[in-house]
């Protein structure tokens, strides 16, 4: 059980203030802590190089970047590329797709995971509960390549989905799920649910397990039924978890994903399948329009951070748990 | 965490509610029946596609085209697997995938834990700035194009190192491991220090062995991530066939067979010589199985640790 108790408080009650304030940055300290410095400063240099130095590349969005020229030979064009993006129908469609698929994934993901967690929580036979859990986590560990392969096979005109629908006489002829734009968002949402729903329940089940059992006992004595207990004890009990996860997801509102859409998309559904990430890839890497692609990427990052801060601020105002 | 479900949780209320006559009757029976049916459907919906893929991979390709193949191969054959490994391409890609997964995982575990140890030392002078600089990387990144140019400037295009270097330390894992190190009694570190151990020795001899449980979780996440990634191969090494990974080969096959679904005669260079029995669909099924086996093998052993990583992720920092 010890290994599980990660989230617990430190075992040794050291007074943090006392420990922290008695070291100042002097040569003596540096010498004394040189091993800690050897162990961490090279990795600091590493992360600066791989995460911070590329931000310099954002300057490309404000230039008409040409790879052959050096930095001072580039032409600066101000916000030209950003202006282009927001008047470009293509980008607007990509933005719409990204937002729509993110919202579908977000809402569908939350609802299905919470419902599944509530239902799993009602299973009293531990062996059965664990078996279902083990199986439902499994797809999370497979790559999107494998999952989209499975999805494509299942949705093919002779695939299992059409087979079942035909045999139930719900449809007369096979539906071409992946060739029609109107189904694409739904297919992506359903694929996400299939892959992640079991995994997403882990955290809710953990939160449910830490609800004080006395609350349920008290509710039993008051004659509450199963649904009243779910609604009045379990759901409020996992509310902080839901809110934290919601904040984290809202920060990723423009990350509808890239892989699923890229792998399942095809010429027929391109108007519904392209997301900002695919747009960046297409304009940037494939067509060499680095400036425009970088501008698209910056837009995405800025929106993400703004949304994250906004959600965090709202949560704080509402007096809820928050992330930052 | 799962064990906790057993001892506390709503489970312990059963004993109480059983004594109450009001809670027995038709309603719980209907609910439990519905719940069980729902769970059975969930299990089927999750497992069936795998089982079917395995069946297709063991069935003769030209027979699979006839359709109607569900849970058992009709014409059992190992031909698909032979074609996969005979092609050489897949075999090399498999080795590259294994190499990158093993190297990434070992490096990541070692470096992230080493850094986590230094950042867990409350007296360390650079503790705060280094922590902040790492944590910030969780919330933003420069993006695809600047990232691509960085790899180009570092001469990592078409190099094996591009699989390993950009992901050596991750901020999320760092926080998980550091939080775990906080739970290790300070007296262990202090007594090692009195015995004359330096920080590196303490990290190597005391902290690293004690972190095994959390490292099992992190290792699983890192290994699965490395094994499953294809985008870096697609972006950085696609012009160098020797560096292709298994997932990337599968991706190429998937996209070509999706376009060629109606025309099974189109082959992808893989298994040309077996064209009579082997189709893109059956090859794809065989590679899918090969690509999932390592995960299916490791998964049951790691399963009990999952909750750890996820829970710490929700701890406010």
Automatic annotation (TrEMBL), chain A:
<keyword id="KW-0472">Membrane</keyword>
<feature type="transmembrane region" description="Helical">
    <location>
        <begin position="237"/>
        <end position="254"/>
    </location>
</feature>
<feature type="transmembrane region" description="Helical">
    <location>
        <begin position="290"/>
        <end position="313"/>
    </location>
</feature>
<feature type="transmembrane region" description="Helical">
    <location>
        <begin position="99"/>
        <end position="120"/>
    </location>
</feature>
<feature type="transmembrane region" description="Helical">
    <location>
        <begin position="141"/>
        <end position="161"/>
    </location>
</feature>
<keyword id="KW-1133">Transmembrane helix</keyword>
<dbReference type="InterPro" id="IPR000515">
    <property type="entry name" value="MetI-like"/>
</dbReference>
<dbReference type="GO" id="GO:0005886">
    <property type="term" value="C:plasma membrane"/>
</dbReference>
<dbReference type="InterPro" id="IPR050809">
    <property type="entry name" value="UgpAE/MalFG_permease"/>
</dbReference>
<keyword id="KW-0813">Transport</keyword>
<dbReference type="GO" id="GO:0055085">
    <property type="term" value="P:transmembrane transport"/>
</dbReference>
<keyword id="KW-1003">Cell membrane</keyword>
<feature type="domain" description="ABC transmembrane type-1">
    <location>
        <begin position="95"/>
        <end position="311"/>
    </location>
</feature>
<dbReference type="InterPro" id="IPR035906">
    <property type="entry name" value="MetI-like_sf"/>
</dbReference>
<keyword id="KW-0812">Transmembrane</keyword>
<feature type="transmembrane region" description="Helical">
    <location>
        <begin position="36"/>
        <end position="57"/>
    </location>
</feature>
<comment type="similarity">
    <text>Belongs to the binding-protein-dependent transport system permease family.</text>
</comment>
<feature type="transmembrane region" description="Helical">
    <location>
        <begin position="197"/>
        <end position="216"/>
    </location>
</feature>
<dbReference type="Pfam" id="PF00528">
    <property type="entry name" value="BPD_transp_1"/>
</dbReference>
<protein>
    <submittedName>
        <fullName>Protein lplB</fullName>
    </submittedName>
</protein>
Automatic annotation (TrEMBL), chain B:
<feature type="transmembrane region" description="Helical">
    <location>
        <begin position="161"/>
        <end position="181"/>
    </location>
</feature>
<keyword id="KW-0472">Membrane</keyword>
<keyword id="KW-0813">Transport</keyword>
<comment type="similarity">
    <text>Belongs to the binding-protein-dependent transport system permease family.</text>
</comment>
<dbReference type="GO" id="GO:0005886">
    <property type="term" value="C:plasma membrane"/>
</dbReference>
<dbReference type="InterPro" id="IPR000515">
    <property type="entry name" value="MetI-like"/>
</dbReference>
<feature type="transmembrane region" description="Helical">
    <location>
        <begin position="94"/>
        <end position="117"/>
    </location>
</feature>
<dbReference type="InterPro" id="IPR035906">
    <property type="entry name" value="MetI-like_sf"/>
</dbReference>
<dbReference type="GO" id="GO:0055085">
    <property type="term" value="P:transmembrane transport"/>
</dbReference>
<protein>
    <submittedName>
        <fullName>Sugar ABC transporter permease</fullName>
    </submittedName>
</protein>
<feature type="transmembrane region" description="Helical">
    <location>
        <begin position="29"/>
        <end position="51"/>
    </location>
</feature>
<feature type="transmembrane region" description="Helical">
    <location>
        <begin position="281"/>
        <end position="301"/>
    </location>
</feature>
<feature type="transmembrane region" description="Helical">
    <location>
        <begin position="202"/>
        <end position="227"/>
    </location>
</feature>
<keyword id="KW-1003">Cell membrane</keyword>
<feature type="compositionally biased region" description="Polar residues">
    <location>
        <begin position="1"/>
        <end position="15"/>
    </location>
</feature>
<keyword id="KW-1133">Transmembrane helix</keyword>
<feature type="transmembrane region" description="Helical">
    <location>
        <begin position="129"/>
        <end position="149"/>
    </location>
</feature>
<dbReference type="Pfam" id="PF00528">
    <property type="entry name" value="BPD_transp_1"/>
</dbReference>
<feature type="domain" description="ABC transmembrane type-1">
    <location>
        <begin position="94"/>
        <end position="302"/>
    </location>
</feature>
<feature type="region of interest" description="Disordered">
    <location>
        <begin position="1"/>
        <end position="22"/>
    </location>
</feature>
<keyword id="KW-0812">Transmembrane</keyword>
